[in-house]
Amino acid sequence: MRKITLLMAAAMLCLPLFSQEAGQPQNKEDEGYKFTVIKELPVTPVKNQAKAGTCWDYAGTAFLEAELLRMGKGEYDFSEMYTAYVDYQDRALAAIRTHGDISFSQGGCFGDVLHCMERYGLVPEELMRPGVMYRDSLSNHSELSAMTNPLVKAAAGSGSLQSDSNYQLLSLKAIKAVHDVYLGVPPERFTYKGETYTPQSFYQSTGLKASDYVQITAFLHYPLYSTFAVESPDNWRHDLSYNVSLDELLAITDHAIAQGFPVGWDSDVSEPGFRTNSRKGFCVLPATDTKGANLQGSDMAHWTGMSAKDIQEESAKHPTPQRWVTPEERQLGWDNHETNDDHLMLIYGTAKDQLGNEYYMVKNSWGTYGEYKGMFFASKAYFRYKTITILIHKDALSKDMKKKLGIK
Fold first, then answer.
1. How confident is the model at residue 30 (pLDDT cuts 50, 70, 90)?
2. Distance between CA atoms of 388 and 394, rounded to whole angstroms?
3. Region of 293 on the Ramachandran plot (φ > 0 left; ψ -120 to 50 alpha; else beta)
4. In terms of pTM, does the model score above 0.85?
5. Cα 358 from Cα 378, distance rounded (Å)
6. What's the confidence (pLDDT) of residue 291?
7. What percentage of the chain's residues is helix, strand, coil (to nearest 5)?
8. Virtual torsion, Cα 142, 146, 152, 156, nearest 10 deg
9. Using the 8-state DSSP alphabet, how is residue 45 labeled?
10. Where are the alpha helices (DSSP H) in 28-100?
11. Helices (DSSP H) in 78-237: which residue ranges?
């Protein structure tokens, strides 16, 4: 994807919007998006989570696979279904023990992948593939959830649960049996490239360590450089994130990519700039309110003369000035539920468009759709507003940031 160019329309309009003699640029309505890659890290092929709410699993697994490429360990293909299987068991038990205060659903966070890796290990994709239990090659967890959700709800609401002769809850055994049927039975031992492993020994053989990874966020309701559990329903394990300033969040992400470290990205994807454009290969946050905005170098007369609706529509055709939110705007978006914990992906590079707007290169888990076969460019403006947390190796942090956060 070096020097990638995206042309969004069939032809250029030849009539100028403003006089060339007056020094104004031509209307570039049909020019499309032209991206120049600045830094690109190696990643494994795109997968498709299909009809399953397991973006956390696919993004977290893609992150681990990218980490092993960075570490020079070669290309791995881990089973997302194995991680989903063991995580669903943990979440069901947590929901039962809290009488339903912890929700039971298909969703999750990056921390779930790290917890499952550390506690249960990893297995190769070939041993637990999606869809094989129902003659498919992709996941469809709709019927699975329709079976397990009532079981968990009944057990969580019960005042006295039955157990077997070994004092194991029958409800958990029933939930596990459903997962066996729909996801498959996890292997206890297996052979991989001539070596015999358990899931735990396979994980240990990779050199990955869950304790090497940290999550970073940037909100105003907790002190800087402290840790807290971001208030997302899918953060049911209450994993902690380090809190930094909004500018530092971007600086940390930029520094990580520049140093060769991939970045896990947990974000809201409900904005029009994502919904309407990600399949075209980009995701933007256009500056629809141009009053008082710094539009230097972006044909200010043109943009300030357009309505918010017009700018939003034009941003789907070619680059426009981007909205650079304040920390307060970002905080309000989270507090009023405009920003939600929607989707997790992998950031693996940086780029610019022809206006100079900066982007992150993103690997998604919706199959090889769109202009870039499952990859797209997310503007840093969008990232600044809609990021919930990022996941990075602690060594991706600068020395100064490690000191601020108390990380050795």
1. low
2. 18
3. beta
4. yes
5. 8
6. 61
7. 35, 15, 45
8. 120
9. P
10. 55-70, 80-97
11. 80-97, 110-120, 142-156, 170-183, 199-206
> Which pair of tokens denotes residue 407?
């990380």
Cβ pair 245, 260 in contact under 8 A:
no
What is the distance between the terminal CA atoms of the chain, rounded to a whole angstrom? Answer: 36
Burial class (CB in 10 A: 0-12, 13-18, 19+), 402: middle
**Residues facing 141 on adjacent strands:** none
What confidence tens digit (pLDDT) does each residue in 145-196 have?
999 999 999 999 999 999 999 999 999 999 999 999 999 999 999 999 999 9
Q: Which fold has domain 36-285+322-405?
A: Cathepsin B; Chain A (3.90.70)
Residue 399 CB-density burial (10 A; 0-12 exposed, 13-18 middle, 19+ buried): exposed
Encoded tokens for 328: 């307060």
DSSP 127: G
Q: Which residue has the tokens 């399949």?
A: 279
Instruction: Report d(CA 300, CA 290) in Å as an integer.
Output: 9
Look up tokens 């809201």; give the residue.
268
pLDDT above 50: residue 128: yes
Q: Which residues pair with 346 in a beta bridge?
A: 264, 363
| Cα 221 to Cα 238, 331, 333, 335, 363, distances in angstroms | 17, 8, 13, 10, 30
The domain spans of the chain are 36-285+322-405
Q: How confident is the model at residue 21 (pLDDT cuts 50, 70, 90)?
A: very low
